[in-house]
């Protein structure tokens, strides 16, 4: 079994990423332009928030946070949608990426981003913000938090609903890899800078830190499994666009 078959990427093509279940390709394109502009403004807000950090933090941090890494990935997602539409309008879009590994990687991106955005939104509003000092917050702090920790999930969720991408339960594996890789990244970051990105990742936070780490990775994996099931449910009565019938759908 090839890696493409394993992740159902043999059923995935780039026309699926620009063809909405309802509406036109142009309508989806306009929606993505609007969202991309909002996301760009979100970068300004997030960097402002990073610079004007909590008083007890000695320095400002940005890309190290899982929120910001996910935000960059979501930005890439919407940018790819704009590029693929433009190439399709010019008649230059191919259904498959020549490099098989890259083709699978793009397919995985379209499958795991929504559960990652869900994790960011859920953890921030339930476990981080309620215990944070917000006394120094300005309007930009609040706007940045809303865009990065809520609207990104809403924007992506709408886009996810509109397009029909093949999936299977094996997409929980990339979610496991992402969770495990981030924990390793956090350790390396601590060794280099002497800073724990999140306080609860510090082994001194609890004597059962290893159980916390295991629980985080299992949680990441379980959410990936659940979202694969939700997507399969969403797709149950939909037709997958294939390369040969992509032109049946209105471009303008």
From TrEMBL:
Membrane among keywords: yes
Presence of the UniProt keyword Repressor in the record: no
InterPro entries linked to this entry: ADTRP_AIG1
Entry keyword set: Membrane, Transmembrane, Transmembrane helix
Domain of life the protein comes from: Eukaryota
Subcellular location: Endomembrane system
Lipid bilayer topology: Multi-pass membrane protein
One cellular component term from this protein's GO annotations in UniProt: membrane
Transmembrane feature ranges: 29-51, 71-87, 108-130, 142-163, 175-196, 208-230
Protein name: FAR-17a/AIG1-like protein
Organism: Neocallimastix californiae
